[in-house]
């Protein structure tokens, strides 16, 4: 008896998309101004301030979700002692960074990173309260709050490549977005910035990718909304100067 052949699948005209566009990131950034204040929130910066800083860090470094929000006991969240405003590299290797340095550790591999901060990252971190956690997003379930942000930003769900089914965006997709734009900006830079494992002993031993990562981080083109705070337009649209309602 011959095996049954698979039924033909309907052809889709639109391919699946696994990363967020710059327009989506701008919409996310502006939607943070409409986030509700969590119950018991008494901090002077709004929850939107922390989410805007988190979006900037996700886009520039592709960090893990547990690095920003400690939703599990084994996650190592970024603390203020991990932020250095001095230009000298904390590891003692490499050149100076005029905007300071950020230290974090990958959740999966425990690999340590000392990354230079560009102007956008430095401006957003300095806008937060130094007495609190760096990314106090007001929830132990950050993906649920991110779904709320997707709804406020009116960002359409992603489509699965195989089935074409719609799936909600999660914070891990920001890591894929980071890799996409870094590879577009400077090929192979995402390998070092995101800490991906690379095959080949010779490549791992002799390829010095730190200068490439440094150059890529300092020269990556930012979404338009991310530069608003650096221009002194906190709470205003950089295009029409319209004020956003603060939560």
UniProtKB/TrEMBL annotation:
Keywords: DNA recombination. The keyword Phosphoprotein does not apply. The keyword Mitochondrion does not apply. Gene3D superfamilies: Intergrase catalytic core. One of its GO terms (biological process) is DNA recombination. SUPFAM superfamilies: DNA breaking-rejoining enzymes (SSF56349). One of its GO terms (molecular function) is DNA binding. Signal peptide: none annotated. InterPro entries: DNA_brk_join_enz, Integrase-like_cat_sf. This is Alpha/beta hydrolase family protein. It comes from Pirellulimonas nuda.
